[in-house]
Amino acid sequence: SKKQAEKAVHQKKEQSKTKCRKARRRHINLVAEFNHRQRKNIWLETHIWHAKRFHMVKKWGYFLGNSPTEKSYRACYRAMTKHCLLQDLSYYCCLELKGKENELLKQLARICSIDTGLTFQEACCLSGRFEGSLNLYRADCYPEDMLGPVTFIWKPRDGSENRQLWIWVHPALKQDILRELKAIFQCTEPEEMCITEPVTTSIQEENQVEAVTSLGNKRKKEDKEGEKAVPVKKIIGDGTRDPFQSYSWISQTTGIAISDRSMEILRYRLIGPSSHFVLTETLKAASVQTV
């Protein structure tokens, strides 16, 4: 009994010297764990930062920060009025339209009205210099059957008649607006299929992790060649899109292509007098090389 007690103390000392408690409890593959934990509710890129500081809520298929855990209202107000405050709006859905400019404007005019203000044809917005905002309606139904407010950005002209338009919609309105856009442009044929399989892949990764973990002795996961495997963060769609369904559609009659770019294009909002300074210090212009 005395020997067993000494042996237990000795083993405990050895174990405590190897790693701290936080390291011992850490998942062997963080990426596999994250993919598993966001199978039902998608995480934004800033999820970890918000989860440590905010009360998180499940809304529209996402995990979003709802309110701060500490009284930081004065700090936020001070940042908005004197410095810069950043918000993560990546949960907003992005619908991308590609095709001839005349055809795009002709059909888009059916779901908005000049009586409400700006349209997709506004000169300052059509050039790509400014973002526009308007209310969408079901085709030829104005002033009834409003779908909801959206913002849009045209890609600047490149000399071709083909244009590219990004429409940003709230996730609660996404399905209705996408259905209406597909109807007016007659986009019925799937152009691309989402080939990622997040659920099965996450389960397979976890099984592999469990297989290489035994009796507290953790070994690094290896691939077929015996080398250290590098975990990959998988694109698993978003809270409003089935990852196994198509995410891009094309019309053979109009030539217009519609793509669902939700969670593929991140969006942040900067508020405050120092916003422009933060952007200029963060973003650096790339040198254009002509061959």
TrEMBL record:
Q: One GO cellular component from the entry?
A: ribonuclease MRP complex
Q: Which organism is it from?
A: Picathartes gymnocephalus
- What InterPro entries does the entry give? Pop1, Pop1_N
Report the PANTHER family cross-referenced here: RIBONUCLEASES P/MRP PROTEIN SUBUNIT POP1, RIBONUCLEASES P_MRP PROTEIN SUBUNIT POP1
Q: Which residues are in the Pop1 N-terminal domain?
A: 4-99
Protein name per its UniProtKB record: POP1 protein
Q: Which Pfam families match?
A: POP1_N (PF06978)
Gene Ontology biological process = tRNA 5'-leader removal
